[in-house]
Amino acid sequence: MARFRSPEGVLSLYLTFDPAAGERRDIRAAFVDAIKPLDQLPLSDGQRARLEEEQALVQEFAGSRFALHGRSVILFSCRPRKLWQVFQLQAPVRPLARFAERPAVAQMAAILDEHERYAVALVDKDEARLLSVYLGQAEQRARIADKYPGQTKMGGWAAARYSHHRDAHLHAHVLRVAEALLDELRRQPFDRLLVGGPDEARSAFLHVLPRNLRERVAGSFLAELFLTDEEVVERVRAVEAAALSEAGARLVSDLGNAIGAGGLVALGWGETLQALLEGRVHKLVLAEGITRQGSVCPEGHAAVLQPLPACPFCEGPLTPVDDLAEWAAERAFDTDARVENVRGDGAQSLVAGGDGIGAVLRY
């Protein structure tokens, strides 16, 4: 999608629905309201006709063929090139409507980069549930059941022997759960693992995990086996938010330290935009929600914050850009650079030190 181009124009639409505000009652109206501001774009008659064609497609889709089952919708459409992609996510998005030569994919790329796939193992002494959580949605993957021996009134050596029998049963059970989790890792790889359950079963399970599972453990918590999917997602969301905040703060700190040591980094819009134009960016770092207006040379000679009548290099006209963060992300994709969006403390530090943008450079 980042490499898709069409001179006929591509419609990009990001929509978030808030059920608490009643936005699910009139889905078609939400789509119509989202694309209506595009009518104000300065377009030629041909471009206007193309935009109206895309708007009609979206309205027809929202009115008759669409069933909402997520918190947000991302849509890309270009009828002449037969592009029609609709994604529904449980994660919120920043509302956006754009009609341009290429799809607006920076926000989607940020969402995919931020949300790792989590496995959640809820383990009891005789049962276990394995779930996968990705983009705010939980899916049951496996259920394991073993009959755990009950309590006994026996005493002496018999009681000790029976206790050993129960320990052996628990050990065999958690080994089965670990094997099932390994099968899931091979079938659908995940980045992190959360383990929940009563203390004894959870401890026994963590003790038998092989290294390739143990190194993925991101947290352990006391819980009942029968948590709802929503409760599981909330657990993952809290861990995910903390991990993202920590990683972002560390990345921005590394940028600042590298600047002080004369390393290959750029900070601020001027330095970073110039490095993007030169193809020197290895990793673009953006503070979430921060952007600027500016102008760019269609020939790739300049990208500036201030409005200029002409490119200072080729003297050709500059193109106004309302969202330089989106433009920067697109330029990064074009040069095979990674894009990292940071939030929380990391975003605040990047705004303070670099006006919300920076980069790790290739050379």
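^ that was protein a. below is b, sequence first then the tokens
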Amino acid sequence: MQRETVWPEGYARRDYESLPSTQSEALRLAAELSMPTWIFAGTQTEPRGRRGRVWAQAEGNFGASLVLPGLKDPALMGLRSFVASLALYDAVRTVAGPEAQLALKWPNDVLLSGGKLAGILLETAGEALVIGIGVNLAHAPGAGEVEEGAVPPVALAAETQAQMDPENFLTHLAAAFAPWEARLRSYGFGPVREAWLAHAARLGQPIRARAMREEWQGTFETVDAAGHLVLKTAQGRKSIPAADVFF
């Protein structure tokens, strides 16, 4: 019998029926929050993704943002994308079961059956980090709504037959996030990095990484201690701090 998922101690939540953007609301509230706080909305009318990309949150899909206040080390802020990825991996596995074919795509996507199920956005507000998360629980965007060459989106319901409403999914996600965050704070990035690499998509295979002004092709060798993508290219080993990855 599956154990009931409970809300993690030390984390607050604020629930809204609708918001323009949970990310914008979280950034607005960040300075006044003293403990980790999830901002959840049943619907978002103006949600946004990485690099200001606009996306639509279809009915039944999940959108929320987590405020982590009082983070003193900027270098560790970006590593929370790995914490959030692992939390999503565990939450989806809890909901969909061990048969779900999940993988983690650097820097911040979760794949299901080879398609994009979830994405993560990190933004800072002073000493607070805001982590925005979107998950296709019920519906996947159409092909025309995603960037050319990007991993095609998928929905949890269609791929696994698992039915989960967004509000209950938040409880699973929050419960999965808390222990990974605790590991990062207690033991550093090492255990998180090791766990992430164990689920990494296309590790040891050729991929393409595109930044604003450069593009690299090579073998996905590892993720280093700073969270950078490491490629083995024809020009040598390349450590890439930020880029979009294409398969």
